[in-house]
Amino acid sequence: MVAHLVSIVMPVYNAGTYLAQSIQSVLNQTYSNWELLIVDDCSTDNSADIIKSFASQDGRIHYLKTLSPSGSPTLPRNIGIEKSNGRFIAFLDSDDIWLPKKLEEQLPLFESSDTAIVYSNYEKISEEGKRSQRLVLAPMCTDYHELLCGNIIGCLTAVYDVKKLGKLYFEPIKHEDYVLWLTILKKGFKGKNTGTVNALYRVRNHSVSSNKWKVISWQWNIYVHVEKVGYIRAIYYFINYALKAYKKKRI
To answer: Which CATH class, in words, describes the domain spanning 6-206?
Structure first.
């Protein structure tokens, strides 16, 4: 397989505690043809200094910045996508970690003409970085209708193919990553899983997504107002989503 360029988009806001570890996990990739676009959402800590330090040592790392704090990863991610040059676009948040063979194991799956997004299993780690085999295992393949039953694609594992899709951007909506995956699969493509654990997801005690009532309302809004599946189908999908979310929460 040709070693196509992978553009990795990382939004950052006051992530100084974990940022160096996240960047280092990209540097540790066995697949080396990548660019890392780190978009600083006007951090007030030492995040900018950390990014610039890495960028000065490796020309594949690029420092970008929003004009003002957006308060959401959506704008920084979209800036990264706009500035990207790769055949593939991948995502990594500034407190999460990739394992070394992530890109090497994912890219060959795009050789299938109907595959436009590839993802992997991942492991939950504590806020302090402790690993304890809390594995989140996703189906080996998914399509639009299956994904409506709940988001099984972890954003920190997702890669999409620009050649097949063009550049696609995140909508200014909660659960924006889920909406983007649905948009991709709604075009008739499939998503495939490497079947391996390729990333570590840091569970933060005070993250926005830990507020279950907000998350529930976001999910319902997607079914009714974004995908417009109708109330009866929305209830069916929501029940399936709730069951999957409960199981994932217990991991």
So the answer is: alpha beta
